[in-house]
């Protein structure tokens, strides 16, 4: 049974035993050689010449406006850090006293970070003065584990606040770190909101590496191999925004002390010219470590200054939404230009009377828009049918995100049959629920951004652009050198004659006998629509949407001012000033500025 | 079925006398100690990386799973091992094919299947499957390793999984399969000459890496051995040619290796080839072990380990933790424990009268021996960096459970060692 063996089993066992002994002996001998004989050599390498990889932060991309003015820049700052592993806690009082920190602050930070590696530095204070730096240098030996670094922080040289538009950077959160641990490390600053977050990967660049010798106390001794192995950081892409810095500044000023939002768009390509939400906050407070007091203040403000109203707040659009019903009825042939409905001061449906702002008599669709006649549109939504109304709202981008490149955005609410079935139950709501939607009230919720995009589509004759605030990224060191943000659009299936009728109505709002005649600008034809958003919690919100010049629109905008009452009174004049400023010849100002400088 | 039941009954009545006659305490205790040292090392190497603390607990869970599976294996009737060999082999081959398509990459190799909360590494399991099937073949009546047919069958059984593993770019595991192949053949009566023919090209190939003079020395040695065997002239010339071409093949083979493997070899040959790039691990690992000294720097106090100089230390470079934090004494203790394990396995292989069980044991030895030699060897700079785990110590559930199954099999065989005597 057992095959004839050339070598006996005994010998085979012996050979395996010898092989095993050789292997273990050679491993053991090598260990003896390394750990006993050469121990000192390795010990020295380990202690004195440990090589540490040091990360070099890249230069974060900066923001230019559409006319190449620098809106967001970087400036160097000194940051005080401690490395817990080497840090001597007995010097805490000295540090806290010298840097005027609150008692117990360092202890608190150490405790908060005790789950992380004690080799990762903790930021204590940013923006150190030169005097403080030299104090640190003088007392270097007495302060083990205390160091300072130079890092870049954001600055806003042009005076544009852009709080919600630009956003700010913040130390990476634990959750985000878990998800992206292949690039980020604890303590990295990352875009937290706005453009800074949306384009984080373009802006941040690529970290560089520096190899340095560190001694057993973690102190840097010198570069390894004369720095030949170092990897240079690659700067982030600089961005040219579509924002007009001056217009943005003016828009911010016009909303000072008000609560509301402004979004202005170039109707020919969807470029955002200005985006403001008020109240806002000073971004330079976020450039470095944000003091807790400022956080508390911002978080407890009842007007929520951290919240981006332009993209994340929903309001009923009021009468500004009437053109949607007009589009639906005209485009599908439910009504035509000659269709007239008589307004007797209101509309009766069932046993409910819906009031109009006036008694307009017989009106066609153009004049109904001009006069903003509620009666006409109460009847029109019923004539069109709920489904058609929803369809045209969807067409103009309501109830969905616009796809803007600012991180925070909500889709809003566009009621539909399904939506009512869901909230009221199937068959438990009646047509009466729909009537007030006809004048843009009720459950309908839109963002100021959506309103601006919609206005822009009317201005350009029916093209819905994806709004965007960045035109292109560029960086001569990187590959590719330039990234142009593509313009995305869709052509809406609105017949040209229908478009003309609605535009005519909006033209008359300003230039006829409409609700915003005070917006007229000599030499420029402005078209628009006022609106009042009913507010169950207080005074109504004022809306104005508009575009100009009527013949060849260059700017479309939406303005909302909360608790300001009638739309024509507060919101429209703001829009007027912005349009006037944007369209007038600014070259004179520039010349004046140059003259003053000389 | 009835017969198997009877067998168990007979066995259970036989288990009497003192405990050491039915339980190999040396093997059991050594294995448990090694697992505990492994767990401590994983704990230490992930101590400063908060999101990897979970690795320690995962490994602990796998050790507990391993104990349960081990208990089952320990209590299996002997026949089950031989009977399950073929299905086990087929399943493992299928898993290896699956991993080729859905596998995820880990440090240059692609050999994991993600199964929800953990990843399965079929190449680990396939080692045991191959061992069982080979042993089953060796134990067949009239099987002759020195016949062409017998040799081809054995080669095929090994080449299939080994080929699939090479496709996953896992050279380390492929080497382990070669070791299983040689040990099994040698143990079952392959002539010394045949073993020489199989092994000498590998040795010559390895020496050719070191330079032209080592190559010439190795070739001279081949000639001397050929003289010793006194075979026909043409055969001897042919074998010499085989060895020569192996040296040339190594050069060509270099081109097929992935860049990270080429760099590892270059770094082995010249530790300063790229000290901060691909040679970084090898250099830092040596510094870690060497700086440990006689007593080590103490648990959780190794600066190399705690400063994270060695990436992914909890897997292939786990021995650094032992070397740095527990020093020469700790390292030697680990070696002694492994030596006890291998000696006991060899004792079981030697004392059993069943070809099947003896073959299983010798090939399990080959797996442990190869893993230990390559893993510790690369950590301390004896051989190039080849990524294979240290048995029972490295982080990785599939490997731990498979290794524990092998130990449990040995314990089982030990318990039954008198059943055919």
Structure, described:
The complex is a heterodimer of chains A (598) and B (421). With 598 residues, chain A is an alpha+beta fold. Chain A has 22 helices and 23 strands. Chain A has two domains: 52-241, Penicillin-binding protein 2a (Domain 2), CATH 3.90.1310; 248-280 and 308-471 and 489-583, DD-peptidase/beta-lactamase superfamily (Beta-lactamase). With 421 residues, chain B is mainly alpha-helical. Chain B has one domain (21-96, 109-415). Chain B is 72% helix and 3% strand. A three-stranded antiparallel β-sheet of chain B has the order 1-2-3, with helices on one face. The longest helix of chain B has 34 residues, at 318-351. The model of chain B is unreliable at 1-16 (pLDDT under 50). Chains A and B meet through α1, α2 and β1 of A and α7, α12, α13, α14 and α15 of B.
Q: In DSSP terms, counting alpha (H) and pi (I) runs of 4 or more, how many helices of chain A?
A: 22
- Count of structural domains of chain A: 2
The main pleated sheet of chain B reads as:
3 strands, antiparallel
Q: Report the uncertain regions of chain A.
A: 1-5, 593-598
**SS-based structural class of chain A?**
alpha+beta
SS strand fraction of chain B: under 5%
* Radius of gyration of chain A, whole Å: 33 Å
How many domains of chain B? The number is: 1
Distance between the termini of chain B: 23 Å
Q: Under the CATH scheme, which architecture of the largest domain in chain A would be assigned?
A: 3-Layer(aba) Sandwich
Distance between the termini of chain A: 110 Å
Strand percentage of chain A lies at 15-25%
Shape category of chain B: globular
- Could you name the CATH class of the largest domain in chain A? Alpha Beta
Give me the side-by-side strand order of the main sheet of chain B. 1-2-3
Count of DSSP strands of chain A: 23
Biggest beta-sheet profile of chain A: 7 strands, mixed
- Number of contiguous helices of chain B: 16
Find the biggest chain interface: A-B, 50 and 58 residues
Assembly classification: heterodimer
Number of strands of chain B: 3
